[in-house]
Amino acid sequence: MARPSDNGGNSLTSAHSQAPVAGSDGGSLAAADESSRAALEEPVVGEERRIEEPDAPAGQPRPPTLKSIKAALDAALLEQGRIEATYESILSQSETRLAQAIDEIAVERRRHKAELEASQAAADETAAKANRLLSEHERKLGDAQANLVAKTSEVEDLQVRLSHVQRESERLEGEISELSRTLEARSEETRRVQGLLAEERARREETDQRLRVAGTQLAALRCDLATARHEFDNQALKLQALDRLWLVRMRRSLLRIGRRLSGWRRRVVLRKKDNPLFDSEFYTAAYPDVAESGVDPYWHYLAHGAREGRNPNAMFRTTYYLERYPDVAEHGMNPLVHYFENGAAELRDPHPLFSTRWYVEQNRGTMQPGQNPLLHYLAAERARLG
Question: What is the 3-state secondary structure (H, E, C) of the chain?
Fold first, then answer.
């Protein structure tokens, strides 16, 4: 009787120790285990008491027999088997769910890893594209700067050619003057011949032959004289017209300069340092006639150079400024003086290759407040070229 009780007790203790693993179902199993153990222990304890104690007095209920104890023990063993089968089923289901959860976590982890790798690849590709675009923009910027330098060189070459053309024009004017002097000498010679013809007329009675010869010579000389006089008159008229035109223009220019020299603007003419945009070295190099004349270059530009379309520096084109801003010409203002005093503040462009607005926007960090953009650029170029 003690052996079945011991085996049953060990099985129930083992099932009871494993019951908490199954969660909520394990709690019900533990409760069933406790009730079964109580049912088994109670008859055994009663039997031991019945054996140890004497028979109860008459009139009291008899204690349980061995048969009833065995039946209770068999029922407890059956309940234990059912509980263990239920526990195994629950444990198997839990393990299956746990394995499924682990598989799902592994699949999700692989999916996240694949998405992370794809995102990293996309980021690397985007960075590579950005680097390629940056390199392409840098190359284009270098090309643009090279083109700008080339265009500037071409403009300087054109300016030098223009100075050569102007010198050639002055040389032709000198030749015209020389031709005029030669024509005057020929006219003097013609007058001398006419005097000789007068003397020949006095001697016509010497011989008829000499008279015919003298008459023929006289007719030829008269024809040459008429031609020479006609050419002389044409040249004289042209020279007179040029002189009158030059005098009129000079008078108008002096009147305009006189009006602009009133008040504080008079200092611009008297002192070159008041307009640092004027480059004397560039002006005398581009126009050697100014250097040969010995006049002050800045005064020459104010009096004649601007009207003649001459440029005060490499990045200021007089004709371009006057054509683009006709209000400057209408008011009779010098283009360089206007740009220095007002044009730069109004973001006007002094040259087709120089945008004042763009330069100010690109160099806000290096320019002083109110500093002239073209003056800043020329100073930077001189510093760069040493």
Answer: CHHHHHHHHHHHHHHHHHHHHHCHHHHHHHHHHHHHHHHHHHHHHHHHHHHHCCCCCCCCCCCCCHHHHHHHHHHHHHHHHHHHHHHHHHHHHHHHHHHHHHHHHHHHHHHHHHHHHHHHHHHHHHHHHHHHHHHHHHHHHHHHHHHHHHHHHHHHHHHHHHHHHHHHHHHHHHHHHHHHHHHHHHHHHHHHHHHHHHHHHHCCCCCHHHHHHHHHHHHHHHHHHHHHHHHHHHHHHHHHHHHHHHHHHHHHHHHHHHHHCCHHHHHHHHCHHHCCCCCHHHHHHHCHHHHHHCCCHHHHHHHHHCCCCCCCECCECHHHHHHHCHHHHHCCCCHHHHHHHHHCCCCCCCECCECHHHHHHHCCCCCCCCCCHHHHHHHHHHHHHC
